[in-house]
Design goal:
The chain has 124 residues and is mainly alpha-helical. It folds into two domains: 7-67, no CATH class; 74-123, no CATH class. Helices cover 71% and strands 0% of the residues. It contains eight helices and no strands. Helix 2 (20-29) packs across helix 3 and helix 5 runs antiparallel to helix 6 (94-103). The termini are far apart.
Length: 124
């Protein structure tokens, strides 16, 4: 059993199975269970782990999608990352959200989309 999910593995399995609930079951079957409860990780936990992998390893994640014949442009992928950051940062506040997007350079690469995402974040 493990307390932490393997973010890369979650991402790869989501590419293959396209369903976080299925991935959660597979992870449980190979020994990834919550350390305290012994239960499988939730679908949301699986998705957030995959999002973290995408955000922290964007080039590798993009290449994995392309290797698995998933048709997505780099611009579409970058915007997906911006939406993913919003998903995992929702409980930490807008300052963290903006900081991460700026660190990734999306405020200058996609200024209009960046501002749209910030406004959406502010609205909830």
């Amino acid at each position: 059993m493990t307390k932490y999910l393997d973010e890369r593995l979650c991402f790869e399995l989501l590419i293959k199975y396209k369903n976080a609930s299925v991935v959660s079951e597979i992870l449980r079957d190979i020994g990834f269970c919550h350390l305290k409860t012994g239960k499988k990780f939730s679908s949301n936990s699986v998705r957030r782990a995959a999002y973290r992998f995408m955000i922290d390893n964007s080039d590798e994640a993009y290449n994995l999608l392309k290797q698995n014949n998933i048709s997505i442009t780099r611009d579409e992928f970058d915007k997906l990352i911006m939406r993913s950051v919003k998903q995992i940062q929702s409980c930490r506040g807008i300052d963290d959200y903006v900081r991460i997007l700026r660190k990734l350079g999306y405020d200058s690469k996609y200024p209009d989309y960046f501002m749209e995402m910030v406004r959406q974040y502010e609205r909830g």
